[in-house]
Amino acid sequence: EQDEDKLTEYLDELEFLAYTAGATVEKRFTQKMLQPDSKTFVGKGKMEEIRDFVKENEIGTVIFDDELSPSQLKNLEREMEVKILDRTNLILDIFAQRAQTSYARTQVELAQYEYLLPRLTRMWTHLERQRGGIGMRGPGETEIETDRRIIRDRISLLKEKLKTIDKQMATQRNNRGKMVRVALVGYTNVGKSTLMNALSKSEVFAENKLFATLDTTVRKVVIGNLPFLLTDTVGFIRKLPTQLVESFKSTLDEVREADLLIHVVDISHESFEDHIASVNQILQEIDAHRKPIIMIFNKIDDFSYEKKDEDDLTPITKKNISLDEWKKTWMAKSKFPTVFISALTKENFPEMKKLIYDEVLKIHISRFPYND
Ligand code: GDP
Question: So what's the ipTM on this one?
Fold first, then answer.
């Protein structure tokens, strides 16, 4: 049953991603298999079921929750005769829509080309085989080579461009002087921008969609006479495409170079513990997991649970745990300073500010030992 719950949560998230990209979901299909089919990801029967549904209801796109191999993508497209997207593709699409600065656009474009390159190759080989025969081979091959070369050239160009901007940004970060730097990290949509706004009284774009923030924003914040720099970073997500981790290097540098991380968690979300694990994993990947961290559990105003009656003998599940019980568990379990708040209603803000103040002060003192 727990597996079923996970599956539902994963598909909920995929549906939310689809919604963010501007699509509405008509139907979900799932299949239990030990291993995805190497040719078509789903089994033959399932594929026919999906294809029939697509035909009958004039569906435009089929989205898969995993990254499809180039050949799976091609085979599915040929069998179903609709647009096939995988999770990576969908996330890249959302990033492309949301990139606002030329820097973010360059990052996304690079990630898209890197995604496309191996798929383009297979696509052409596949077409080639279909056309077959003598005569087609020559021009076909030239075409592939030309296309591949164009894309490779474009990729090197974009990388050069990013390198230049990376250098500029590194200089900018250096010029910010010795002020303590704090970075907000967390799963996408947990309330980082809302918290940023509340703390800095600025207007950072917050929206109930995934990845509202692609570009980092830096604001000066003062708590009790103590100034520090607060950075909002791109939201993390389960199975963040590797192309994106790489091309968002500079955005993640903000995290890597921060003195203190504030890990924001959406406690009202059923999968919040999975989200914490995903974020920790990415922090580890970028080697930022040894920094001081403050855990902020947000959205307590929106928290709900199914209270069990005393004579209810069914086993306790996560859904039956109250906020107080979560607090006790996490306060005991977390090695980091931990606080439960609502960025919306500002509940427990004084307590949170005190925590941040104490941590920032520690770093500040270690940096300016001669000040009192
Ligand atoms: P980000 O992606 O982590 O930057 O998240 P946002 O700040 O954009 O917030 C995502 C959504 O959660 C928005 O609709 C916010 O209004 C909402 N939100 C943020 N904080 C809270 C909170 O404390 N309580 C509730 N109920 N909603 C919140």
Answer: 0.98
User: The sheet that has 338-340: what strands, in order across it?
Assistant: 217-223, 226-232, 181-186, 260-266, 293-298, 338-340
- Residue 231, SS3? strand
State the pTM of this model.
0.78
* Cβ atoms 294, 355 nearer than 8 A: yes
pLDDT in tens, 215-226: 667 888 889 888
Q: Is the dihedral of CA 356, 358, 362, 367 positive or negative?
A: positive
Q: Name which residue sits closest to atom 20 of ligand 1, judged by CA.
A: 191
Mean pLDDT of 119-142: 50
Cα 194 to ligand 1 centre (Å): 6
Let me know: does 295 contact 336? Beta carbons within 8 Å: yes
Bridge partners of residue 263, in order along the sequence: 185, 295
Q: Whose CA is nearest to atom 18 of ligand 1?
A: 191
- For residue 104, which of 211, 7, 209, 29 has the smallest C-alpha distance? 211
Cα(232) to ligand 1 centroid in Å equals 13
Backbone torsions φ then ψ of 284, nearest 5 degrees: -65, -45
Residue 31 and residue 7: Cα distance in Å, rounded? Answer: 10
Which conformational region is residue 211 in: left (phi greater than 0), alpha (psi within -120 to 50 degrees), or beta? Answer: left
Task: Burial-class residue 165 by CB neighbours within 10 Å (0-12, 13-18, 19+).
Answer: middle
> Residue 36: CB partners within 8 Å, gap ≥ 6?
42, 66, 72
